[in-house]
């Protein structure tokens, strides 16, 4: 299932037979500029921690240092 | 993707899917990328069982189609989400997975991608009753897989050290391990344990999704009145329309808020969550109905420097006073030239003063001492609030110390301006006169006296070209390099040739200029130099017969201009670097945009008195490229790449930081001349229609095919007469023109297109420049099969729409294409069949016309050109006609030029008149000249 917030109305195939293999906007236009840098652990910091523990350690304490290193992904 | 929809299995156990595809009676309609010219008038939808062939990019030597490239963009979105930590772990059945958290701007981005999805991406039929997949669902599935893969790459190590739980360990322990393991599966999952873990993770995920709701809590920093305190005030605002807001006091009083059934609850919950990012908020939350909180100056500074960016990034509304990030302490540099000695260029000494400034106000030493004494990070300077933390204060005190230096050389001042001060104390204003004033104004070209057209130029420079020549001569005189980045078609070639002529006007013989360009442009330089600057001694250093060792040194010594390619420059680097050059010019300088690429490193190693880069690409849009090209022109001037990235590139590309943008303009302005064809002063200089010939070469493969066709067809022509002979001549012409277009056009074998045709290489370069400049172009070909080949190829290269209008289209489809081209503001290319679109259409959205092959009937070509150049056209139109040198294309073009002067009627009937030529004349016409292949 997909949330309403993410759902879109699709054009029926019958109306897209001429450009069935093409995106509805050009790929150059679809490419996004880079997102502004934010701390990669911001989401974890903004939320109440879940009641999950691993060997008595809150899962959040295990995830946060790992998340901080995500900003360097693919660099 | 890790999982694939499987709707069954083929005979050999091969997975298959059922796809819903546009079809004819014979089978699925070929996708345009296949390059077939099969036209299906009324396709219908039908289901097909299609075998699935998994492959990795490395094992596939082809250009991926738009649907695959679309998923490439989805993959970049997935990596971006992971980089920003917008993911949470999840238990999906018996698998430990990562999934995206899509809220706010990310949810909008998701919908944008879903709406754009090519229909074929959702053509897999998953159930018997279902015909068409839903793009949102398909996208979420793909994105989740890509996020999971990227996250596993981002977490190369276990999250909990060396601990490796056994099969009987708690589910949460094993789940955590599997989150970073190559295999996400968990064995022996107890339903009760799984339910408890899933419930916790579901609540966590729901809370994360709740952060990005349509109504959000807003924090507003309010300046003190008089000597009072700062305040942080609370309220609600709309995520979609930030101007729709209600202060907390009214929310507690029962005010409504659109989209929030219970505004009080939204406000209270949001404030309670925000305390995790803004701990000082805890103080305010002790009140039952908080509306805001007082903060002292330090608290206000901490809020705007630390908490506000975090809150904003987490999806809260944040409003700051308008001066934040704009008005800051900086340096103002003043220089004054000294009267007396002659112009010494960069070594000239000037009076120099550096002041501290806020905006346009200079701060004195006493004032700075008073600010330092206050020891607060937010101070009011002459009515304006300014951020002034410890680092800035120390830098300011150091700058005051340095003011003892009262003179500098012009070269030192330029370096200081380019460096732009320190991060904590940037250079915010420069006031210079004389030579420096001209150079640093960023309008050098307008302030200099134009250099008149050199008498040895066979032609006349337009006024803006004379200003460009003055700019080039000015920089060159100073020994500085520059980037001439005028829009395409404004005459960078003729201006550069004029510079060489001007330098030789009084009989001077400076060392040769080395010009490096893509192979596709060598002939253009040769032709343009011969046409406009015949007095320049030219040596083309390219091909197997090029000079080496002492012969090369002699050739260079005897030349004014040496032209070579990037490839040859790399191969002959040692020999070329040993010559003494006046200047190295890089044409199409985007070829050296990647500073680490070997050809960029090679041209940087060739020493010369000055350097010049020519490019039509707007360099300000590509900052890493700008650094690389500047590093070629003026080595070291912009500092190391890493410092440039930190100082300019990141702030501009990620935040559109205006301070960084103006600092970069100031730093590079003196060395970059870019005029747009839309500039008022340029438009008035330009003719309404500029016609240019674009000289192309053949690849060795094209040359071999060309000669084979000539040999075969001349035999047939000589063995025939009458109508048969006429038919053979026309067939020979057609086949030779096809070779000139592309080997695959002649062979019709569906083979790959890239790297096999000089004409196509030039077309690609031009098309890239045209769309980069935001323009639209009409590209005419007389061969429908060539257009069918070009359309998907160019679209894949450009990632921009490439429309294709030919005789096989219905009237409705033609009208759709024309409407899109005229109405859509996106840069694009419109490929047109000369026969199907040569008359009648109104395509004034184009300001470029390219005739990629020729009908050799000026009237027909002009009619086609007039699709763009007609009533309704408000811009200058550039018309380019492609001609392969050393082939029949060049010779027929010469004949037409000659005959045009005699009588239009002689050449007014297309190519038929050529059939009357004698065998010897035809042999001469078809002959392949040595200049055809480079």
UniProtKB/TrEMBL annotation, chain A:
It comes from the Bacteria. This is Uncharacterized protein. It comes from Acrocarpospora phusangensis.
Automatic annotation (TrEMBL), chain B:
It comes from the Bacteria. One of its GO terms (molecular function) is hydrolase activity. InterPro entries: DUF3670, Helicase_ATP-bd, Helicase_C-like, P-loop_NTPase, SNF2-like_sf, SNF2/RAD54-like_C, SNF2_N. Residues 473-636 form the Helicase ATP-binding domain. Pfam families: DUF3670, Helicase_C, SNF2-rel_dom. Residues 762-918 form the Helicase C-terminal domain. Keywords: ATP-binding, Helicase, Hydrolase, Nucleotide-binding. This is Helicase HelZ. The lineage of its organism: Bacteria, Bacillati, Actinomycetota, Actinomycetes, Streptosporangiales.
